[in-house]
Each structure stands twice: as structure tokens, then as C-alpha cells.
């Protein structure tokens, strides 16, 4: 099976896999774009296709307003997937993308697609375990850039360019605002197995906290700790893909 040409701004596909039997749906981090996952498409083995969620307000959707709620991102992505996806699928989100993927899974489970075969949650505390709001979206531009650089989201000095800041920071600030506002009182466990992925040296969320995703599944979970900080998938993409393929082996 495969994902047809989407015809929707919510989904991007970088590499066609007409014979694929399972599709991995990828959700970017706060301020992230579909291009974060561009190289993942060719890193997956035969039998796997990928499609990437593109949030409004960036790249191909730059002229659109940012989402008002994190749940709006999940609802938009879920509706697009229901219109364009067939066959088995898995969801993988990095950082904020883990929360959006979880909310999308909740919506998709009761629809025509049914639940994903697995959820991969990377570098994020589970819903209901977030703790106090960070207030990062309230920082001035220099403070916001300092947070991004500390997490490894951009190379040091890249966002010294004011024109680039004007393109990047609005979506980063908007997404941090969404995460701070997202505080579900009683998150629902999914009837979906979960793989929790953590960076061994992540300064924002330690592996023990990422492991709490196990509280949100009735089907069991595993924790995989990989080398690196918050953006460990950048340098260790091959290891992430290895875990993904391993944990989806029985679904294709």
C-alpha cells in the first residue's frame, strides 16, 4: 500500500513507495517543519513508506495562521490522514510532535482507519506529566534563541541573522505557547503499544520521565535510550530507524 498524492497542505511525502505495506506518519517538534524528516524517507527499508505532517504557519504553509490549540494540529492531521491513507500505519512524533501524535491517535482510533499499529514518542514527557508551564513563549527573541540553541535545535549563531529570525521564531514561539496550554487533566490510555525514545543527555527531559509514556497504553511499552541530547534523532537517525523497524517487524 502507499499514500496517494495528498492534495492537502497537512501532509508531505518525499519519497514514493508504491509497494509499501505500512506507512509511518511523522510529526515535527515545536517550530519544526516537514523538512526535518526529509532524509527519513530513503532511510526506511522496502515495505515502509513515510508521510510527514506539515503544521500551518511554516514552509509550504507560511502564509497561514498558526494553530490556536495543540488539539487543532491533531484534528487537522487526523482528518487529512483519514482522507489520504489506507492500510496499516504507525505514528512517530519528536518532542511536541509526540503530543500531537498522541492526540491524533486518539482521534484516528475511532474512525475509518482504526488505531495505529504503534506510537513512537520521542523526547517528551507524556500527557498529564508535563509539570508547570515553561513560559518559554514569553521570552524575548534573544531568550528564545538561547533556549533553541541549548537544546540543539539550530547551530550556534545561525539565528543571529535577523531575517532568518523573522521566519523561524514566530512558529517556535507559537508552538511553545500551545505546549504550555496543553494540560489534559486525565489523559486517556491508548489501546496501542508505545515505544518511548529518549536522549541519554537530554537537558530538558530525562529518560525516566520519557518512560512514563508507559502509563498511557494498555498494550505495553518499551523505552529506548539513545546517545545524544534533545535532538538525538539528527545525529542518530539510523539508530532511531533501527528501533522503528524492529518494533514494527510484526506489523508488515
TrEMBL record:
Thioesterase TesA-like domain mapped to chain residues: 28-244
Source taxon at top rank: Bacteria
InterPro entries named in the record: AB_hydrolase_fold, TEII, TesA-like, Thioesterase
Keywords attached to this entry: Hydrolase
Similarity remark: Belongs to the thioesterase family.
Name of the protein in question: Thioesterase
Taxonomic placement: Bacteria, Bacillati, Actinomycetota, Actinomycetes, Streptosporangiales
Amino acid at each position: 500500500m502507499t499514500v496517494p498524492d495528498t492534495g492537502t497542505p497537512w501532509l508531505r511525502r518525499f519519497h514514493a513507495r508504491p509497494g509499501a505495506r505500512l506507512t509511518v506518519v511523522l510529526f515535527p517538534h515545536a517550530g519544526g517543519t516537514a523538512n526535518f524528516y526529509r532524509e527519513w524517507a530513503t532511510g526506511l527499508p522496502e515495505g515502509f513508506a513515510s508521510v510527514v505532517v506539515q503544521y500551518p504557519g511554516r514552509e509550504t504553509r507560511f502564509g497561514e495562521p498558526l494553530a490556536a490549540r495543540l488539539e487543532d494540529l491533531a484534528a487537522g492531521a487526523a482528518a487529512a490522514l483519514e482522507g489520504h491513507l489506507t492500510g496499516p500505519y504507525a505514528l512517530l512524533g519528536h518532542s511536541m510532535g509526540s503530543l500531537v501524535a498522541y492526540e491524533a491517535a486518539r482521534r484516528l482510533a475511532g474512525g475509518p482507519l482504526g488505531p495505529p499499529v504503534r506510537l513512537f514518542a520521542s523526547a517528551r514527557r507524556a500527557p498529564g506529566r508535563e509539570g508547570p508551564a515553561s513560559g518559554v513563549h514569553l521570552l524575548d527573541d534573544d531568550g528564545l534563541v538561547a533556549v533553541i540553541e541549548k537544546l540543539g535545535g539550530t547551530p550556534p549563531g545561525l539565528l543571529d541573522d535577523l531575517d532568518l529570525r523573522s521566519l523561524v521564531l514566530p512558529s517556535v514561539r507559537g508552538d511553545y505557547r500551545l505546549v504550555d496550554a496543553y494540560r489534559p487533566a486525565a489523559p486517556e490510555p491508548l489501546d496501542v503499544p508505545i515505544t518511548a525514545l529518549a536522549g541519554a543527555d537530554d537537558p530538558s527531559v530525562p529518560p525516566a520521565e520519557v518512560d512514563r509514556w508507559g502509563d498511557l497504553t494498555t498494550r505495553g511499552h518499551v523505552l529506548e535510550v539513545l546517545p545524544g541530547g534533545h535532538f538525538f534523532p539528527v545525529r542518530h537517525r539510523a539508530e532511531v530507524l533501527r528501533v522503528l523497524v524492529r518494533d514494527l517487524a510484526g506489523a508488515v
